[in-house]
Amino acid sequence: MPRTQQYSVDLSADERAELNAMLSAGTYKTRELTRARCLLHADDGLTDPEVSEAVGCHPGTVGRIRKRYTKNGLEAITRRKADRIYERKLDGREEAHLIALAFSDPPEGRSRWSLHLLADHFVALSEIDVESISHETVRQILKKHNYTITDPNLG
Prior knowledge:
mainly alpha, 0% strand
């Protein structure tokens, strides 16, 4: 006896027409088209294994698409939740301070600044309240302002 699907797909006529138009347009990403096909087959009453066989994806994928559809509607086809939200480590004043540090003389015994050295010295500054900063953050800030460590004007 087949078990019932946990999330049922019941498309309206407008939603069905939108999905069919999406499939015939050919301008969408393959993932989005696969999701649309899954929803159309699921609306026809097929089970997850039957839909996955018809569309050519894993049954777990079909289940996830059903679940997202019941929670978000057709928006679930095209939108993806952001994996992470990044906050800026430094504000504009702190970035300017970092650039000024990069243009200052390197520490004694060094011929030039390295990214790691800049990061360590920047954190050690008493007027800047930053617990830690990576060399990659230093690189990105210098790149954003069009400076490089190998710039002959630096250090």
